[in-house]
Amino acid sequence: MIIVGFLLGTPVLLFGAQVGSMSATRTIDHLYNVDVRTDPSLAWTLWTPKASVDMAVTTQGSVRSIVPVTTSFGPMENVTGVGSVRVQWTLHRTFDRSVPMDSDARFSVTLSAQEDNTSHVWRMSANLNATIELSLGIHVAGSQVGESFECGGPNYSGKPSEGWDILRMGFGDCHVDYYLPWSDVILPGLVVGGAGVIGASAIALLPPKARP
User: Fold this and answer.
1) Which of 73, 92, 169, 212 could connect to 3 by a Cys-Cys bridge, CB 3.0–4.6 Å?
2) Which letter does DSSP use for residue 117 in this model?
3) CA dihedral 48, 53, 59, 64 (to 10 degrees)
4) What's the CA dihedral at 193, 199, 205, 210 to 10 degrees?
5) Coil, strand or helix: which one is 46?
6) What separation in angstroms does the CA of 138 have from each of 9, 109, 170?
7) Residues of the chain by 3-state class (helix, strand, coil), percent to 5
8) What is the distance between the alpha carbons of residues 32 and 89, in angstroms, rounded to a whole number?
9) Residue 83: CA count within 13 A, CB half-sphere
10) Do residues 166 and 119 lie in contact, with contact meaning Cβ atoms separated by under 8 Å?
11) What percent of the chain has pLDDT over 70?
12) Crossing angle, helix 2-23 and helix 187-204, to 10 degrees?
């Protein structure tokens, strides 16, 4: 009987620990994107808003450097490159469920150089008359067992001229999805239950003298 209890109980305990851990936490991912669209051969330097927290950065396209700079509008990112590029900063966070899903934790990453629904930016390029389309903003996504959300945080876009200029603010929508946690809970539960049944059935098929 001890072995039967072990075969049936161990998978259930492991599954319970996994579900308990998953249901006790939620994850939130912050993404800050800066997109530059311009002539492929145009060399440029842009000062863009800086995130309020440290984030990992990746780039697409010909980005030459990303260096923090102090300005009259606060700290900013000095980004240099050629042609169209994307710079993306990311931050992954895990919160206890005691922090509500709709709390300020979703928007705890803010941007510098914002003022009156605009964002300050600075431009210098090899061609004063060249058009640079610049868009930047924060995207937030979060999840917990049975629920997920996505929000387009504050975002700005425009075609800045040389020197200091501003981008106008836009807003993104938020939506929340509720779902049956098949892959996280239900399917593993069926597997665990099946394993327990198979183990018990195997023992039941043993001759009486060979059973534990």
Assistant:
1) 212
2) T
3) 60
4) -150
5) strand
6) 46, 8, 11
7) 25, 50, 25
8) 5
9) 6
10) yes
11) 67
12) 180
> Cα separation of 170 and 176, whole Å?
20
Q: What is the pTM of this model?
A: 0.70
Instruction: Pick the more confident residue, 141 or 82.
Output: 82
The model's confidence at residue 87, banded by pLDDT at 50, 70 and 90, is very high
d(CA 34, CA 167): 12
**Of 74, 37, 75, which Cα lies nearest the Cα of 160?**
37
The answer to whether residues 124 and 64 touch, using CB atoms and an 8 Å cutoff, is: no
Q: How many residues does the chain have?
A: 212
Query: Would you call 177 exposed, middle or buried from its count of C-beta atoms within 10 A (0-12, 13-18, 19+)?
Result: exposed
